[in-house]
Structures are given as C-alpha cells and as structure tokens.
Design a protein that fits this description.
D-Maltodextrin-Binding Protein, domain 2; globular; 2 domains; alpha/beta
Length: about 325
C-alpha cells in the first residue's frame, strides 16, 4: 500500500512539472506549420513569410507543410489530431474552419474548439476578377451576362463554403443572377483556370491576384469590401457599386491543437507577434498585396468566436441554396 501511494505521489509530481518543463525546454527541434491550401497561393505565401520571420526569434526552424484537399479540411484534420506539444501548428483560415465544421455533409473530425487561436496575421479582402483580355470590363458587364444566361457564366472558388463560395452566393442573391460555380482547392488553381480560359471569373482575395492585376494579366472588377484596397486603389468596392450586402474577406493566423500547454503557447505567441510587428514583415507583405491585421490573445479569441457565429448564419443559408 505504501509503495502504491509513493508511486501515485511520484506520478502526480511528474504531471505537475510536465507542463513547465516542456515550456522551459521548448522548442528543442524544428516546428511544423501546416497550411491547408496549395503552395503558391496567397495563404501559402503569407504563411511562408511569417514562418521565416518567426523562426529567428523561436530559435528553431519552422517548416511550412502543405496538406491540401477538401477545401482545407485535410490539413485542418491533421492539425486537430496532432500531439498538442507545440511542434505542429496550423494556419487557420477563417471562415473556412467555421464552414467546414458547420456543414454536416463534410463530417469533419474536428470542431472549432479543436484549435486554440494564437495570433492572426492577415485580413485579405475578397476580389472579383477576370482574365486581362476578358470581354467583361466591369462588374456590371459580368452580372448582365450571368442574368442573360443563367448557369452559363462560370465562377470559381478556393473550396466549398470558402469565403469565395459564400461571396458568390451573396452576389447571386443581391444581383438576381446565377453562375456556374467551379470549386478548386486553392488560389493557384483559380489562376490557372481563369488565365487559361477555362473559367470566366474568380471570386478570390486581393493577395491571390494582386501582382497579375498590376501586370495586366488579370482585371479586377470589384472588391468585396466597404473600403478600397491600398494595393488596388482603382478597383471599386461592392458597396460603391450598389451591392453593400456582398462583403467578404479571409483572415489567416496561427493556431495550435487543443490541449497545448499555456506556457508553450506563450512562447509561440511571442515569436509570431514579434515577427508580425517587424518592419521587414510589413515590407514583404506589402510587396505581395497582403494586408496585416494583427490580433492576439483575447482579441483573437473573440474574433474567432464571432466568426463562428456569423458563419453559422451564412452557412445555413448557403446550404439551402446548394
């Protein structure tokens, strides 16, 4: 009995010191940042810029790993199932996380509580764009064509119930038109589809097509926001064009699996916050058209919860139309 009691006390003591000990020794090896979308897209580009900056302060390499498929579900599933020790981080795209969970047909192996949001990096407004030599020179041109030939004009997204998908359905309702919706797994495929002439237009985000619009390869028709983008100031907003209900964006930040020790989270938070606030980060993100929107701690947790509540409304509405 005495031996058993000593054993239990020893186990209890070990459990008590496990978390602090882990934090004191963290990180001892490379950290993996899982991106649930393809290499080369705006999500991936922002993640790689952030990882390269944060690893300097973290003291260990941060390796970006693309786990692609099912509109982000495959990568997010891997993060949710990872050991909560700080060595597997996830790049959280909102509202993609929310809509996957809320769609019963997706049968997600995780829920919103499977992740702890640590620090947000980007808020990337939505953008409707076409090929540079497209006959659609304005949003009005595109919508008129969609009204005249319902279901004929193709519009692509970065995944089922992504922010892009919701934006298309918002526009269909607001403009009384119907597109033929094509779902891809990320922005890289969108670019190939539209510039290759296989799809008529894309509902995307500024960061995904910014440089190609400046070069003339693509033409931006409307920003799905209330204010113009500093990166593309000549492109009008949906609000300006009379579609104030069509407002859409994507936020991206770093999260960890539920159960990650608070002290480890603090180490991760410190490294990424320092990276996001650095002048080098601002320069590199401006160069690729990605707008920084730092959020951390309680602010990011509230935004994460608020996005879930908002996504619930739009997802239920979208599912009825699907």
């Amino acid at each position: 009995m005495l031996v058993r009691r000593r054993t239990l006390l020893a186990a209890s003591a070990a459990a008590t010191i496990a978390s602090p000990a882990l934090a004191q020794n963290y990180p001892r090896r490379a950290v993996q940042l899982v991106v649930a979308f393809p290499a080369g897209g705006s999500t991936d580009v922002g993640a790689r810029i952030l990882a390269a900056a944060a690893e300097k302060d973290l003291g260990q390499p941060i390796t970006v790993v693309n786990k692609v498929g099912a509109g982000g579900q495959i990568g997010l599933t891997e993060v949710a199932r990872a050991k909560p020790d700080g060595y597997t981080l996830g790049f959280l795209n909102l509202p993609a996380v929310n809509t996957i969970v809320l769609d019963p047909e997706r049968k997600a192996a995780f829920n919103v509580d499977s992740f702890i949001p640590v620090v947000n990096q980007v808020l990337d407004p939505g953008l409707i764009w076409v090929k540079g030599d497209s006959p659609y020179k304005t949003l009005a041109d595109l919508l008129d064509a969609a009204r005249k030939a319902p279901g004929k004009i193709s519009a692509c997204t970065t995944g089922i119930l992504s922010d892009d998908h919701l934006a298309i359905m918002m526009m269909q309702e607001a403009a009384k038109c119907e597109f033929r919706i094509v779902h891809f797994d990320g922005g890289t495929q969108q670019i190939t589809g539209v510039l290759g002439g296989h799809v008529d237009c894309a509902f995307d985000n500024v960061g995904g097509i910014f440089k190609r619009i400046l070069s003339g390869e693509a033409r931006g028709l409307a920003l799905t926001d209330v204010e113009r983008s500093k990166f593309l100031p000549d492109i009008p907003t949906t609000k300006e064009l009379g579609f104030g209900t069509v407002i859409s964006s994507s936020t991206r930040g770093v999260g960890v699996p539920k159960g990650t020790p608070p002290d480890v989270i603090k180490v991760i938070e410190s490294a990424f916050v320092k990276a996001i606030n650095s002048p080098e980060m601002h320069q590199k993100m401006d160069a690729v058209g990605l707008a920084l929107k730092p959020m951390v701690g309680a602010e990011y947790a509230k935004y994460y919860a608020d996005t879930q509540a908002q996504a619930k409304k739009y997802t239920e509405w979208a599912l009825k139309q699907r």
